[in-house]
Amino acid sequence: MPRRRLRVSGAAEAPLRGALRELRVRLGVPEAFPDGVLAAAERAVAAPRLPQADATDIPFFTVDPPASVDLDQAAHLSRRAGGGFRVRYAIADVAAYVTPHGPLDAEAHRRVTTLYFPDEKVPLHPAAISEGAASLLPGRTRPALLWTVDLDADGRTESADVRRALVRSRAKLDYDGVQRAVDTGTAEEPLALLAEVGRLRERLEAERGGISLDVPEQEIVRGPDGGAYELAYRAPLPADGWNAQLSLLTGMAAARLMLDSGTGVLRTLPTAPDGAVGRLRRTARALRVDWPRHLPYAALVRSLDPRLPHHAAFLQECTTLLRGAGYTVFSGGEVPELTTHAAVAAPYAHCTAPLRRLVDRYAGELCLAACAGTAPPEWVLAALPELPGEMAEGTRRGNTVERACVDLVEAALLQDRVGEVFDAVVVDVKERRPAVGTVQLTDPAVVARVESPAEPLPLGERVRVRLTRADPAGATVLFTPA
């Protein structure tokens, strides 16, 4: 079961910071950049490889969490004179600063992804690049990979192109502000079109059988009057989904460009085996979720209300069909057998987060070459065979960090409440050990292991559970039915 991301609002308490530092040491997380890498970053920032094309007249905007400063994407949307829409999507041009086979490149291959902890992040690139010279901060001229995607009136892609250009973002927006502007009708056209195009793309996603699971985030926040830390859930807003659709749109366009050119790196996910779907159908029956035989899985998920306990539990179980994603490379015109991502229901590529993910820099270069009608750079072709393995290891490390952080923080915040009884919902039960599973508490916002002495756990039901263990040292939390 996937765990939720955690964020710390405000300065974390010293004991929690200390425990997180120890966790980073235990997991072998590469925190400080070597001096040689930092020196290379300074040189790169002083002399970047800038494109000649100038698109700074386009009033781009970014949509990110308020505290974010590593801004990968900026958008501008407009109506086309003949009908339909034009989406311009600027992606930070990391290759303007990172020289192939140089110190920055080698360090990025060692780190693979940015790692997120509740109190800080461990970036893929030095802050001088990821939070400074390459970040699409407002009011700053930056090199970018500028995508231009033309859509018809229904939101379907008619053409896609990517070129290097200088861009300048005009505004740094956050999800709450975007949602408020759209809901109150105060959003100007480029922003209002984000909602219009986002909804059209969501409709197309539903038509092709794609699915986006809106799993809430856990947050660590200060209690009333700056008191003890508490856990809370943050449910995604519609604006989160609209913004995500732009990234999906670009990733799908990138996959198509690479497939047509015969060289690429795709993000792939096989269709879930019949056994996994059968198990999910049994779970639906146990949870009293009506799943007619003729109704596709994706359509069922969109009909669920996560505010209902049995629906929330089923949504957690649905994530089992989305496991097993990987990266597939191909070259020389030999298209691989698997080219699609089952959740996207189309070919798809990671290409919109190069400040935070290694593979995106390579996908961007391949798309640039495809649009220019030229051969991909040799340094890209040379790296392709090893990329899937590197990304798999980086993803595994990121998942380990995420799980360990959740367990540690929950244990630290609950350690003085052992013996207390809480209201919860059983959201997961092990198929072969039905007395072991996962509960989701309403208050505090905890998701943790539960073990029943003998009785099978009632999946999707409200239960009362007693906290029997909360050990920050071992990062474990355990409940039993009360």
The outline comes out as: globular
How many angstroms separate the termini? 24 Å
Largest sheet: 5 strands, mixed
- The number of E-state strands comes to 18
The Rg value, from CA coordinates, equals: 23 Å
| SS-based class | alpha+beta
Helix fraction bin:
25-40%
Tally of alpha and pi helices: 13
Query: Order of strands in the sheet with the most strands?
Result: 1-7-6-3-2
Instruction: Give start-end ranges of low-pLDDT stretches.
Output: 1-5, 8-12
Q: What is the strand content?
A: 15-25%
Report the average pLDDT across residues.
89
Structural features, described:
The protein is α+β, with helices and mostly antiparallel strands and 482 residues long. It is 36% helix and 23% strand. The chain has 13 helices and 18 strands. The strands form 6 sheets. A 5-stranded mixed beta sheet has the order 1-7-6-3-2. A 5-stranded mixed beta barrel has the order 14-15-16-18-17. It is globular. The protein starts with 13 loop residues before the first helix and ends with a strand.
List the helices and strands and how they pair.
Layout: H1 14-26, H2 35-46, E1 60-63, E2 73-79, E3 85-92, H3 103-111, E4 115-116, E5 121-122, H4 127-133, E6 141-151, E7 157-173, H5 175-184, H6 189-208, E8 217-222, E9 229-234, H7 238-261, E10 264-268, H8 274-286, H9 297-302, H10 309-318, E11 326-330, E12 340-341, E13 346-347, H11 358-372, H12 378-383, H13 387-414, E14 421-429, E15 436-441, E16 447-451, E17 462-471, E18 476-481
Parallel strand pairs: 1-7, 16-18
Antiparallel strand pairs: 2-3, 3-6, 4-5, 6-7, 8-9, 10-11, 12-13, 14-15, 14-17, 15-16, 17-18
Helix pairs in contact: 1-13, 6-7, 7-11
